[in-house]
Amino acid sequence: MRRAVVGARRAVVGARRAARQAVVAGAALCAVACRAAPPPPPAGTLVVALESTPAVLDPRYTTDANSSLVSALVTTGLTATDARGEAVPDLAAAWREISPLEYLFTLRPDARFHDGTPVISADVAATYRSVLDPALRSPKREALVAIESITTPDPETVVFRLREIFAPFLETTNLGILPARLTAAGPVPRPEVVGAGPFRVAGVGTDGGVDLEAHGGYMGGVPRIARLRFRVVPDGVVRALELASGTVHLVENALDPDVLPWLARQPGLELVISPGTTFQYLGMNFRDPRLADRRVRQAFAYALDREAVVHHVLRDTARPATGLLPPSHWAYEGEVATYAHDPAHAAALLRESGLGAEAALDLRRFSYKTSTVELRRRIAEVFQSDLMTIGLSLDIRSYEWATLYEDIRRGNFQLYALAWVGVTDPDVYFRIFHSAMRPPAGNNRGEYANAAIDALLEEARRTLDRAARRRLYAEVQRLAADDLPVVPLWWTDNVVVKSRALVDFTPAPDGDLRSLATARFDGPAAR
Predict the structure, then answer these.
(1) Strand 415-420 and strand 365-371: pairing?
(2) If 0-12 CB within 10 Å is exposed, 13-18 middle and 19+ buried, where does residue 192 land?
């Protein structure tokens, strides 16, 4: 036991030393990095750095976080989600429930697409029908399958009729709306996406980034920021250096925690940390018979020292998680099984499963896929050390984001770590844990199956009373905490470093950037 503790501590100390060395090395390269920056954008442009390319802006096909972030500034839905996770009017001025199976939406008369044409009911109907068309293969089709028909009595009115009671229906009404003319085929190329959001697409960069311009006809008022540039800067040290040098003005949730104190001391920069709802987890492939054994999954949960990672590696910018829903969510259940760091108990569970230290090495070896981001690799190395103390071998494989994400979507993994971002309705449990939601139908990428959880999730979809839904989801959370379809890691805070010239920007709990529509940027062009 003592050797295990010492080993874990050494791993944490090593991770912190590596982080400090990265910062020092980056500082030494500052002049080179700054000289290598691309030509400055036009005056008044706010530059936002992203870790990876927002490859898709068509809201019918966005599945990764950065694509969704940028798309949400370009397109807008019938409803939006407020800070409490509740639906509020957006393109729709109002809506009402005609019956449990019928919803009527009245569109705002001032809603305009970027090309100047009004947003009418035919555009809403065409967007939703295209997602429902199996030939177009939208990844959001499953969330809409309860829709039986969409009618448009007049240009300002849309009526949805459902096949059956579907409690999370309002969550689906935040789908970004496109002009009907763009909905007949698959994903619209990024430069051609037209929405009714606060910003329009002005161009795409050679780095995979995107330029946006203020939408002069935006129903919420013309944004005070005339132009946004989303630059793809894969290296975390370079992102920090560019913030310090003024070539980047905003980075959200994409900085190494060890550089935050240094950035906070830089003139002209402001560090803002607020509670977030993003859920980081360890995913597992249930096609592997070893991981299909609950004792093995629980051994992983007991072996990983989440508290140490949160404190030493993440610098307390996260909270150890008990499940998908954070404590601020209306359906959160706190009375669930938890897994304090206990290597001895983890080793005992492995012996029971047949994967103890006496088992063949091949049986005790697992591959772990992560991104090339330095922080993710360091976390992987801490996990590798933790698992080594109970006799398991972790083969860390890091990939560029596009390759990693495609492998996970295809189920090509044993272990991986990712995050769920922007969780609103607890029906997300259906899409990620129900046995019918294996890709391409849903996001149950590890092919988990539990008949009891399936039954509860199906009933919750048919239950409109919120108190009754909460009881059903509480039981789902208790079962999931015991059975571990994924191992909860932590809920991350929103960590924003921004230019002080960016004012009136309020970080959202889910990391959404829609606040840029009402913010002001008083700075010059990036240097």
Answers:
(1) parallel
(2) exposed
pLDDT at 292 (0 to 100): 97
How many residues appear in the chain? 527
Mean pLDDT over residues 480-498, rounded? 97
Report the distance separating Cα 129 and Cα 152, nearest Å: 12
Token reading at 187: 């994903």
Burial class (CB in 10 A: 0-12, 13-18, 19+), 261: exposed
User: In whole numbers, what is the pLDDT of the chain averaged over residues?
Assistant: 90
CA–CA gap between residue 21 and residue 18 (Å, rounded): 5
Distance CA 45, CA 54 (A): 19
Each residue of 405-436: b (16+ CB within 10 Å) or e?
bebbbeeebbbbbbebbbbbbbbbbbbbbbee
- pLDDT of residue 173 exceeding 70, the answer is yes
Strands 227-232 and 415-420: unpaired
Residue type, 181: R
Nearest Cα residue to 159 out of 96, 111, 108, 112: 96
Structure-block tokens of residue 48: 């936002």
| Between 71 and 3, residue with greater pLDDT | 71
- Dihedral over alpha carbons 239, 244, 526, 50 (to 10 degrees): 20
* pLDDT single digits (tens) 369-408: 999 888 999 999 999 999 999 999 999 999 998 899 999 9
With a CB cutoff of 8 Å and minimum separation 6, the contacts of 97 are 103
Q: Sign of the C-alpha dihedral, residues 387, 392, 398, 404?
A: negative
User: How far from chain centre, in Å, is Cα 114?
Assistant: 27
Of 364, 422, 376, the C-alpha closest to 401 is 376
Token pair of 345 as six digits: 């108990």
Rounded to the nearest 5°, which phi and psi values hold at 144?
-110, 0
Phi/psi of residue 210, each to 5°?
-140, 140
Residue 42: how many other CB atoms lie within 10 Å: 12
